[in-house]
Structure formats: C-alpha cells, structure tokens
Design a protein that fits this description.
The protein has 14 helices and eleven strands. With about 325 residues, the chain is of the alpha/beta class. It folds into two domains: about 20-85 and about 115-200 and about 210-215, Rossmann fold, CATH 3.40.50; about 225-325, Helicase, Ruva Protein, domain 3.
Length: about 325
C-alpha cells in the first residue's frame, strides 16, 4: 500500500515537472510540420543525455528541428558540415600562435556548443568521425596537452543520407553504438505536405523565443532519473536484448542464421534510459511495457549485425526487432 501511495506521489511530481514538455512540443510545431516522431526522439535524447543518429532523405527538416530546439532552450547551436576534406582540428579546435601574447593559445572548435548538428557524418574520413565520437563519449576535448570540458547539456544530432553511397565513409559498428537512438525519418503525409508548402511560400518568418534555460534541462534530467522502473520491466528489457544474442532460447530459431551479432549491454542501458524519458514525456511517473515497445526500434536497429544470409534474403534489422518484440513475453 505504501508503494502505491509513493507511486501516486511520484506521478504527481512527474506531472508537475514535465509540464514544460508540452510547451517544447508546441514550440517545435511552430516551425516543424508533422514529424512527431522526430520531435519526440530529440526530446528523449535531450532528457536522457544521449545522442541521436538521423537517417532520411534531404529536405525533411532535420536541421530545422535541432535549430528550433536550441532556440527554445536558449542554448548554443553549432552546425558542422562533414566533407571529405574536413580535419579533426576543424571540429574540436587547434592551437594558434598569438603574436600579441607571444605564445600558443587554444582556439576552440564548433564542437564547444550545447547542440551540435553533424550534417552528413558519413561524408568525413574516420579520423574526423573519431574526433567527434570521442567528444560525444567523454564529454571533453583535448587540444594539445590541455583537456577542456564540453558545455552541459551536450547533444549531438548526426545525419546520414541513405541514398548516396559514393564518396562516403560508413560509420563502423562500434562507433554507431555510441548513438543512443537511430531514427529513420519518412516523408510527410499529403495534408502535412500542403501545410509545409503554405507555410514556406507565405514569407512569414516565425520568431522562436526561448522558453527554458539549460539549467532547467539539467534539473529535468534529475527528475527523469526518479521515474519508477519495476523489476519486471528490467527483466523485459534484458529479455529483448538477450533475444538479439541468443534467438533460439526465445523460440526464434529462424533468426539464428540472420543475426551476425546481437545488441551490447549499452542497448539495455539505453532502453531503460529512453523508456524513462518516454514515460516522462507522457507525464507518467512509471515505465510500462508499451514505453519499451515504442522506443525499441530506435534503440536497437543500429545495434544488430546482419549476416550475408539476411542481406541475401532482404531481411533488415527493423524486421528482426519487430519479430523479437512480438515474441518476447510482456510482463
């Protein structure tokens, strides 16, 4: 009974503290038409302190989405266009000689911001990718012999264009694993498309005003960590991740020859963190199985290695995750 009262109290607390999410969503809708999943994923990444990899054809408002979010939060925004001739120093910064002081001083790169848009991350060579990925993982950058902490919050949204493969450097599996979510963005619906056209030819520019500070986001993250995650939900998360590694143990023998390697423990951690943030977005103080199912594809699609057999059969990680979710017992 005491636990039920605690949950009720927690629910009321989360409801109070998550009120700003509605304002953020409304603010995003001022410039972004449709793309609800993209907006939700950005807020989940922001609240969970995780990074997002976006895949979609050009022109689907990926840049606009993160730019709008940073304007709503009164945060620093930086856009890095990845190209084959980019150098690590162009991302993290370098030492330059100051004639005035007669010594070398650190010139910080564009990575020193709260929100980073790494546009077409697979266009730059491995050296540049690893420079950004180190900053993402360690939340710090080393220039020469000095280490500088990155600002908080720090969110990287990297984009990939799925169409062009020429002149690209695909991210290795170990690096893709650093992204909390991989979100696939699709074309807008017909009525949304008409609204987009109307909005863009009217010539009226929407002015976005900050409604939050970065400190408020830091405070919200602390509250998100208090969202209740039951042991049964933990078991459900572990079962889903283990089913990607040992499908035959979960009566999924047909997947055994299709999966080259399963999801890492990072997947379990990120499933739990993202589920908490998802519950918070829905103004709920506890995680339910539907939350796990809602975010499972985004957390797992880039963490499952496919065999040649799967590729030959035109099976993708999306279908594998769906089969696992439908088979693993829901608590």
């Amino acid at each position: 009974m005491a636990e039920a009262i605690d949950i009720r109290e927690l629910n009321e607390k989360i409801e109070r503290h998550s009120a700003f999410v509605t304002n953020l969503m409304t603010g995003m809708e001022q410039t972004i038409v449709g793309q609800k999943h993209l907006v939700e994923s950005l807020i989940i990444g922001l609240l969970s302190d995780g990074h997002i990899l976006l895949e979609g054809v050009p022109g689907l408002a990926k840049t606009k989405a993160i730019k709008t979010l940073s304007s709503l939060i009164d945060a620093q925004f930086s856009r890095i266009q990845f190209t084959p001739d980019l150098l690590p120093a162009d991302v993290i910064g370098t030492m330059i000689y100051s004639q005035k002081d007669g010594q070398f001083i650190a010139k910080k790169g564009p990575v020193f911001a709260n929100f980073i848009l790494a546009d077409e991350i697979n266009r730059a060579p491995a050296k540049v990718q690893s420079a950004l990925l180190e900053a993402m993982q360690e939340r710090q950058v080393t220039i020469s012999t000095t280490t500088y902490p990155l600002p908080k919050p720090f969110l990287v949204m990297a984009t990939q264009n799925p169409i062009e493969q020429e002149g690209t450097y695909p991210l290795p599996e170990a690096q893709v694993d650093r992204f909390m979510l991989k979100v696939i963005i699709d074309y807008p619906k017909l009525d949304e498309e008409k609204k987009i056209v109307r909005q863009n030819i009217s010539g009226d520019e929407v002015k976005i005003h900050p409604i939050m500070t970065t400190q408020e986001i830091e405070d919200a993250r602390k509250v998100v960590r208090q969202v209740y995650l039951d042991e049964k939900i933990e078991q459900y998360i572990a079962d889903i991740v283990f089913a990607t590694r040992y499908p035959d143990k979960y009566n999924l023998k047909e997947l055994k020859g299709l999966i080259g390697f399963g999801a890492s423990p990072r997947a379990s951690i990120n499933l739990a963190l993202a589920a908490r943030s998802f519950a918070f977005i829905k103004h709920r103080g506890y995680v339910i199985p539907e939350d796990i199912r809602a975010i499972a594809h985004d957390v797992l699609r880039h963490r499952i290695g496919l065999t040649y057999e799967a590729e030959a059969s035109n099976v993708n990680s999306e279908e594998i995750v769906s089969k696992i979710i439908n088979k693993v017992e829901v608590p």
